[in-house]
């Protein structure tokens, strides 16, 4: 959409406000999708929720690709947004539930890798299809998104169902079969299965037939009451951290950089459309490269170090962009050093975001919830993520018109500085723990996790 908007505005003759709405409406609709996805996935399973997300997104992509006017374009983007909400909720949850503790960081970061790859492919599509006639170019940019949706609809049938969801349904035999496929040995599979049963509140001595007859757990009934009306202190702390991470991921400026990077580079002094699209493709390549680096480090050095390095680097990068844009706006002539500072700041911001805050947010928030609450609590976090994302996307133009574009980036830098303290004091390390034990690091109150970690080290 970032590149397509340049051509949509010209073709459909829409206003700046309509451009903002077009940019942000997808994520407002993703909010609705994510809030319902948790309940749906507890009802029909993780696999079929992925199928449903793909079908919804397929319909939305086709509507955008064949849109004759602005109203149909907005309708397609809304439908696609619902599919995005489903996908963003279910992909990390499924990845976390299917993976072993030693590889959970890598596998749970795969959705973020694919998001970054998708952004890069979007930038490449902008560059490739920009040469088409105006009436076709942006429509192909958006309509081509239907192709990966089709692949996913059929590909998901070759994936196993989440063994943790199967346990919640009382289908222990099926869960045992999946665990054998994703474990290195029979003993490991059985040990992991017993841990999942314990987390689900199923007695280890119950045979499969007795458990299968238990229907009280089916469908995720009562989860919202447990989250909002009767949460335990541990659940309260987990929700605060998860929602805080999703909120901070976007108020630190990533949406402004990804969606409006052509405008940012134009404000810095790069005025050729061809150059704007080429530099934007470079942003996409940088994002993919550094998120691959993060994937290699998540299970080696842990979540906390990556988070803290990432957010600290983002603070400095945002200040670089702010200083560069401020210098450009106050200079009568084109200043090469200011342009270079802006470009360097944008690329370093993307690098630091992609090596930590981008992937770790999804990994961390998908692994800290208790099993029974995981899908619906994760959907709440994704809803906050999408609401914040949409708010940033639809307000960025208005924000920089009110406080200048340089002022907007100084504001993002201030938000990132607050995030440094949030992550340092409130986010314990989760690397290497079985999924059923991760919630225990939040069980003893704020700051107590440091004492527990130190005692474990001794």
From TrEMBL:
Q: Which Pfam families match?
A: Sugar_tr
Query: Where in or outside the cell is it found?
Result: Membrane
In its UniProt record, a GO molecular function of this protein is: symporter activity
- Residues of the signal peptide: none
Provide the Major facilitator superfamily (MFS) profile domain boundaries: 1-431
Which InterPro entries does the protein's record reference? MFS_dom, MFS_sugar_transport-like, MFS_trans_sf, Myo-inositol_Transporter, Sugar/inositol_transpt, Sugar_transporter_CS
- Keyword flag Transport: yes
Query: Which Gene Ontology cellular-component terms appear in the entry?
Result: membrane
Keywords from UniProt, A to Z, are:
Membrane, Sugar transport, Symport, Transmembrane, Transmembrane helix, Transport
Where on the tree of life does the source sit, at the highest rank? Eukaryota
Chief location bin: membrane
Provide the topology term for how it sits in the membrane: Multi-pass membrane protein
Among its keywords, does the record have Membrane? yes
**Membrane-spanning residues:** 20-38, 50-68, 74-94, 106-130, 136-159, 238-261, 276-298, 305-325, 337-365, 405-426
Xref: Gene3D superfamilies: MFS general substrate transporter like domains
Protein family according to the UniProt entry: Belongs to the major facilitator superfamily. Sugar transporter (TC 2.A.1.1) family.
Protein name, UniProt field: Major facilitator superfamily (MFS) profile domain-containing protein
- According to its UniProt entry, this protein's organism is Vanilla planifolia
